[in-house]
Amino acid sequence: MAHEREIGEEQEFLNRALHALEQMRAEARSMRDDALVANMRGVGDLVERDVVMGTALHRIDQLAIGDQPLFFGRIDYNPDDTGEAPTYHVGRLAVSDDQLNPLVVDWRAPVAEPFYRATGVEPLGLARRRHVAIREKTVLGVEDEYFADANGDLALPDDEVRAATAEGLVDGGLALGGPGALLAALGRARTGRMGDIVATIQGEQDRIIRAPLPGILLVQGGPGTGKTAVALHRAAYLLFTHRVTLERQGVLVVGPNPLFLNYIENVLPSLGESGVTLSTISGLVTNVDVRGHEDEALARLKGDERMVSVIARAVRTRQRPLRDDVRIPFGRATMILRASYTVDAVERARRRPGNHNQRRSALGRELANRLAQEYHARFIREGVEVSSVLTELADQIRATTEFKDALRRMWPRLTGQELLHDLYGAPALIRAAAKGVLSDDEMTMIERPRSATLGEIPWTDADLALIDEARVLLGPRRRPRSTTRAVDTSEVLNGVDLDAYAGDVRQAALREAARLSASANDELDEAEFVTFGHIVVDEAQDLSPMQLRVLHRRDLTGSMTIVGDMGQATTAASSASWGTVLRLLEPRREPTLVELTVSYRTPEEVLNFARATLKAATPDLEPPRPVRRAGSEPTVEACTPDNFAEVVAAATRRELALVAPGRIAVIATAARVADIVALLRERGIDAIDPRVAESKGLGADLVVLSAEGSNGLEFDGVVVVEPGEIASRGSRDGSLTPRGLRTLYVTLTRPTRRLAIVHVGDLPPTLM
Predict the structure, then answer these.
(1) Whole-model pTM?
(2) 345 and 469 in one domain?
(3) Is residue 182 part of a domain?
(4) How many domains does the chain fold into?
């Protein structure tokens, strides 16, 4: 326990740093206000004013940290040759006093690196590392670690004797920097949002965070190893280190589902970085809503890499010559678009560079020009009509209804949705596109009745990856339109007291705010993709080959951070190996594969209990090494169908009480979620499905989740219902499957403190 003197010391410093931060904010607001009412005498003044305004607004946004702690640590160096012993407080942004003396250094700055990397073996010049616990504007606790100098001496205070403690650590376990602070962070009750664990990142994680930008970095890590935290902090670190490049090119963070994105959405803003795009893979496919679900066999088929050939052939089958001649009334004649003309023209169009919709225009021009030449030659020779320019004649022919209809039959202009809707609804088109690629049963499997309109189609997640594939081949259907979006002027004038200015100045400020609030943008066609300078992907093990292709198309520079655990691959179409992931992402340089080996979150008791399940599902993977124990072994309760509801309710009540004020998740198969929510509520337990929009989401004390939806989440306690059903996921006869066992492994490793099992059916052998 830190002395009150040390807490008071840090509180005094925090008050000073907060005062300096408020001064920095006031300066930024003053700069903005001055720019709003500045007198403009020429073009140069306008440009200068815009630069100042942009700088001020960016600075105000940068200095907004909400109720997050301003700093979380301090590093004290050993005295140098001059006797100076520098001290730095490490926080989420840099703060200086009115004399520009640094008070807090940004955690991403090189000077802050020893806070993460210093160990007893390599102290990196540190004499002391201090972890400071702050809630809002109050220092709650302080914990110090001391490092030996070159002579092996510790610079302990004269009035204090400290002893190392192994409380909570695994016997003979790992030597961690700051175990007390780390365990305190891990022991805190879950809040429904990922905590800011910058202060407890260890050297293993920090080396990944600070790895070079170029190329693909693969991070394999088991439950509790901090994969997600590493990925998000790497995104912030890269933005800080390569700001000029990445602010222009953008950073994309991809998560497995919207619930997960909601869980992590506060992490990057809390680090001072708000210019990051968060999305699921399906969210990258614009203008299509997921409304449907399909069985696992069909999802696996749609995610299969063979669908690349099916989609390409589906596009080609929509490029076909006419079967019969077409009569086109035009001027004084009826032109004949002969089917024989179209055979060679279609073949030439297929060989042209570009996408389907671009080449359609070339085909239309070629056929219209041929008819225009025939018309021109005929009437010039007979002297019936004054000659017209061929291009004008061709344009007039292309505008006729008959020509448009013929071109539509030969080479329709299509969107990805239209192509897939037509394909699914026409067995003949399926056979033409998939024969020799898919089996007869598989071709039958993807048939689906046509919907009355595109808006009514029950698209699934697997469909969206195929739509994206089709969009690449089809191309934009139309050119983007330049638009102007009006933004509320209050966004620019926020905090400006206009009443303090004279009327003419106030009106000038309002006009200027309105000008600055209008932002021009180009409306992209749905087939035009936004690309990013760096992409971070979490839970990558669950992506199908077709979804990995969606990701690859958003890659601008070949710079990616891919994190996951192949032992937790749970989706039907999962790629399930890092080799497959790399092959589909097509690295432009040699990729780097690193492994997180230490589990900071999942206690020893839980990892030992889940070990057999992992080995049965993925024999070549080892679970991470635990660094802490929870002090309680997992419990297993058998029950009958008659008392099932009472046993589940009793186990839930017990676990809630034991982890209070923490959070509990009851995890079962998706088919059981609604029933479990109902049975718990009937017994007075406030359980919710966090997917319901009106609920508290993951912030609730008790949530009921599907096993397949729990990946990436963490709770103080977990109650797993019917693990045998989870372990047989994807099986038609109830037998255990590798994917089912991996899903069970995921559910078993969600708790940070307590795990309980309730079952009526047989337990999987791995839990006996």
Answers:
(1) 0.72
(2) yes
(3) no
(4) 5
